[in-house]
Amino acid sequence: MVAKSIKSILVAVFSLSMVLFSNMGYAQEPAVEHTTEAHGATEEKLDPAKIIMDHIKDAHEFHFFSVGDFHATVPLPVILYSPTKGVDVFSSARFGHGGHDIYNGYELSEGEIKAADGSKVYDFSLTKNVVQMILALTVLVLLMIGIAKKYKAGIGVTSAPTGWQNAIEPVITFVRDDVAKPNLGKKAIKYLPYLLTVFFFILINNLFGLIPGSANVTGNTAFTAVLAIVSLVVILGSTNGHFWGHIFWPPGVPIFVKVILIPIELLGVLVIKPAALMIRLFANMVAGHIIILSFISLIFIFGAMTKVAGLGFSPVSIAFTVFIYFIEILVAFIQAFIFTNLTAVFIGQAFEGGHDDVDGHADAVVI
Which of 78, 183, 249, 252 is the most buried (most CB within 10 A)? Predict the structure, then answer.
């Protein structure tokens, strides 16, 4: 009840602020335009859409904040191959802040490195998505190896678990009991290593993406597409003759319906299922970042109308930003679970009803 009341109050304050500050902004707008014309200067318009897209897309540097002419950034290595120049390796800082400089015949335009003379160039640079993915993989490997060594030494087996074991063990048990067993039955133990790897890899990247200045790796279609393709390979590797028999010749269906149904079933296996895995993860992780950045941008949008509006709306915007940020932490876990669970469901469907499963479902086992 208290949560609903607070939510209602915040919505009311937000709506009232929008109405009041919008009216104030429209009242001040002619004066701003007149002042600009009087001084003969062209003031750069605020473009929230461009700012938001620049923050969520890949880049050749980690940018944390700017204060005046000081920019807190971590430049990343640029690795290029040109048929005419050969291999070039240098720091992305050579392009200057904003990437407006030309270095060694190369320029950075809209996040893409091109040759200034228009010749062909192949980019193998370590962008922030790639670097952060490597860091996430390193954290995952070191974390799991450390926990495995503890179990091997008997900690958590003959005695109580310690450290990260207390946090990781319930998650592993959850994936085993609520994802693998219900969907894969007696084959759960076979696919559990893959499901756990996918779950923790997505989760770590989701959480890393919430750190200010970091990359939103799971909000990149290239990343989610590769994960979906890997899952598709595992799904196809789990199929049997019974499965493909139902795909290419559905039983109990008239022939004229089979002509329509067969291509649909093939599309479902080869396209729709991996697309569902890819788009669901990508869309949900991008949406959260866009919402957070939108609330922050509202401060500057109202501030561009009048300083009073910007200052007045700041507490409301910050409150909503913090609220959505905590929601995004929950979403990071939920999306890792959904991707893993859907993968388990699709794998289970691949061998369900085979000759080793007469009843159409596998028997659950105790692991």
Answer: 78
